């Protein structure tokens, strides 16, 4: 009698498919959805932005998400090992992606720590009447390079809490740590955040806010920068080409419906993002209504200022301010935290696989080093400057470069595109046709290269 091996795989795995899907949604839905998307859409053509956004989602976002899945699921390693298995000398592509994760993690954690402080402040509306002075002077102490006790309390303590929590989850591992956290928090986030959006929609002035967000400015479509913004948003938001989805799918069981899960994740992520746009702009419409100005006259409609200056001002004006503030900043913390876990697991598993480190030493090492750097940077005001620079380089240049290198490498260098396509089709119900190869081997890298050149030229000028 021949015996078929039923030995369990040594690799850690998700316990169920929904665990994988929720974790992937947890990684995708993050600060990028709440904190980045509404402002980017508003500044990049409003309603017209939906066209480049959808184009980016369909021509690059979903196809590259599938590519990440295929690489991780077939090669069964996080980025460096997975690329090494595709070709010996290609490990560097994986390390490049791992480097991006490390850098982004350092500042991403800081924004979560700020949100955590604001979560606490929401109970007393501590920012008072002048939220701008509060954020810049009292909270970040801009203009004061010394580490003061206030900054330690506002930023360093929550940062330490964030990092200790991440390290704990990583030590618990994929199924007992990451999966459990996402199973609990993602449904909670969806419910809490939906409640927030409904509340915002019922505020006076909400429709003005929505008009400001969705009125199409068609001439934006001829602006290459708008297209670049759409592609960058999709990459960041779906967490693709960073090696994270490679890691997450490498923990997926061998028989798993990969492409269908991918569609669920992409759809959930974009829906959440658009929901966030609706919620944020309804609330801004309310602020404009209170101040009797047009939404376009409001200042600070994007980035950290939107979240930590403009939004607190909105909250203060609202009936039931405390609850709204608590749920809003609570959502940011949860959404950010589940993404931060994914950033860090990419790095710590890369070290585990490369150097044979155990899970706990790798988690403590990676979390400890990133944590120390982020505490050191963000306890002084240099962090705010670093945040901007890193956002430019890691998120725009870094990830686009990574996507180009990865697609060209797979399709044209090792010529494994069709092998990976057949791999996904063998396990999935949603079948990929040859069109997928055209997208990842032609359309996406070609467009991304134009974008990259344009970006570099604009940075040099
Ligand atoms: N997708 C996350 C967000 O939207 C950010 C992220 C990027 C997470 C890259 C992991 C990797 O906020």
Automatic annotation (TrEMBL):
Location relative to the cell:
Membrane
- What Pfam families has UniProt attached to this entry? SNF (PF00209)
Q: InterPro entries recorded for this chain?
A: Na/ntran_symport (IPR000175), SNS_sf (IPR037272)
The UniProt keyword set, sorted, is: Membrane, Transmembrane, Transmembrane helix, Transport
Q: Name one GO cellular component term.
A: membrane
Q: Does the keyword Secreted apply?
A: no
Keyword Amino-acid biosynthesis in the entry? The reply is no
Q: Its domain of life?
A: Bacteria
Q: Where are the transmembrane segments?
A: 20-38, 50-71, 92-121, 151-172, 184-206, 226-251, 263-289, 326-351, 363-387, 393-414, 435-457
Please report the record's description of how this protein sits within the membrane: Multi-pass membrane protein
The record's principal subcellular location, in a coarse class, is: membrane
The protein's name is: Putative NSS family transporter
Q: Which organism is it from?
A: Gordonia rhizosphera NBRC 16068
Source organism lineage? Bacteria, Bacillati, Actinomycetota, Actinomycetes, Mycobacteriales
